[in-house]
Amino acid sequence: MSNVVSIVGAQWGDEGKGRMIDYLAQSSQVVIRFQGGDNAGHTVINDKGKFALHIIPSGIFNPDTMNIVGAGTVVNFDTMSEELASITKKGVEVDNLFIDVRAHLIMPYHRLLDGAQERSKSEKAQIGTTGRGIGPCYSDKATRSGLRAGDLHDLEFARTRLEMLLPQKNRELAFYGLPEADIEELMALLEKWAAAYRDKIIDTLPVVRDAYETGQKILLEGQLGVMRDLDWGIYPYTTSSSPTSGGAAVGSGLGPRRIDEIIGVTKVYSTSVGGGPFMTELFDEDGEKLRSIGKEFGATTGRPRRCGWFDAVATEFSCWINGFTALALTKLDVLDTFETIKICTGYMIGGEYYNHLPETALQELAKPVYEEHKGWMSDTTGARSWDDLPKEAQAYCRRIEELVGCPIKYISVGPERDQIIIMD
Ligand code: GDP
Ligand code: IMO
Ligand code: MG
Question: Which of its termini does the chain have fewer beta carbons within 10 Å around, N or C?
């Protein structure tokens, strides 16, 4: 493995990034979550149990790996505490967790505004956010009105910032008919967070530089996928940060040239949680079957995920935007009982054929064009090498590789840590 490996979602999120990070973290010294907040739901199943991680990096299970919540993230220390409690209860050591001073604080008013902004939209216009305050927090970051984790080292400074920011924030809350924020209540919260996390909030850059310069293995953990990217995703149905390999460089403190490998994690079919276009969505028995066999329910919100066939056009776009060096295909086993499997190779939009992904407005009108593949109709969950896979499954994977234009490096055939095939 190269020194710095970025793991990013190649679709709409929930591709299985958590399981890939958990697997690769066994041989890595540092894992950096580079964007997003506790809106993530990264499922990890290993010898310690089953976990749904939200803000804690998925390398936490290796006590020898330093886990960093990076500069590009937004952090709610209340939900972080709940998450830490749920994993320490299962005997996981969490001394190896640190938060960068530059990460932004998700304040209670961010969550309130997230909910109110969603409710103020018509059903069709709703983004379907996780309600964790992500959008309002990143908005404050962009308007230079945020508080950062490092501010917990200087509570007087934090108070000065709040005194300056709250009048405007309270007008926003009032606009939505929400109660005003009280500075003393917020200060009490910041004091509680400072007491619990002061020692964990550090400038991670010297540590990351040292790790890089001494040849340690570093993993960059993305949340969500390119289709929810603020710039390149299905705006406005996106998240408010950049889950791409470009975002990995920005949010971790490792410049683009220092990233050796970019692994695009993709399911062998498609799912999406939340609003916006989703070209291959199935409303029939096949869609139901994918959802029930794949257990496609949100790890953060529990919402049923929209399910559809593999969209090679969207994933090829993802490969271009991210510059993948390799693919990790996940959930091959979910297709074990499908007699026929489809891949979307293009779209019809207004009578015209598209073999590339257009912008959001046109995606809303796109009708998928499919090619059909014969299913393998046998159990792949025990496969541990390429040769163990039925020839129809091999052909299906090779076709994905060809259409996306990127070599496959990993194929997972079940949620457990060892249910993975590593390609030569
Ligand atoms: P993430 O957000 O990208 O980490 O993905 P999620 O954890 O939200 O969703 C992936 C789901 O698929 C989780 O429930 C995983 O346990 C599960 N999963 C991951 N890889 C496989 C696989 O190869 N086969 C099966 N059946 N489930 C998998
Ligand atoms: P992981 O990390 C799937 C979606 C929401 C919504 C949009 C914006 O498991 O991939 P946000 O709360 O970020 O403002 O919501 O992004 N979304 C997710 N979809 N998995 C997630 O987590 C998601 N986190 C956010 O549904 O459309
Ligand atoms: Mg998820």
Answer: C
Share of the chain above pLDDT 90, in %: 98
Ligand 1 centroid to residue 423 C-alpha, Å: 20
User: Which of 42, 104, 110, 373 is labelled catalytic?
Assistant: 42
Q: Which of 113, 142, 131 has its CA nearest to residue 38?
A: 131
Q: Is 104 a catalytic residue?
A: no
Under-50 pLDDT residues of the chain: none
403 lines ligand 2 (CB under 6 A): no
Give 121 Cα–ligand 1 centroid separation in angstroms. 31
Q: What gap in Å lies between CA 222 and CA 20, rounded to an integer?
A: 11
Query: What fold, for 104-197?
Result: Adenylosuccinate Synthetase, subunit A; domain 2 (1.10.300)
- Tokens for 348? 């019809």
Angle (deg, nearest 10), helices 108-119 and 155-175: 20
pLDDT for res 418? 95
Q: Structure tokens of 204?
A: 């991670």
Class of domain 267-422: alpha beta
Parse the chain into domains and list their residue ranges.
4-100+201-262, 104-197, 267-422
CA of 20 to the centre of ligand 2 (A): 18
pLDDT at 1: 53
- What's the whole-model pTM score? 0.97
Q: Does any ligand 1 atom lie closer than 6 A to the CB of residue 414?
A: yes
Closest CA to 158 of 186, 180, 197: 186
Q: Which atom of ligand 2 is the closest one to the Cα of 130?
A: 12
Q: What is the pLDDT of residue 369?
A: 98
Cβ of 228 closer than 6 Å to ligand 2, yes or no, is yes
Third-level CATH fold of 4-100+201-262? Adenylosuccinate Synthetase; Chain A, domain 1 (3.40.440)
Does the CB atom of residue 295 touch ligand 1 within 6 A? yes
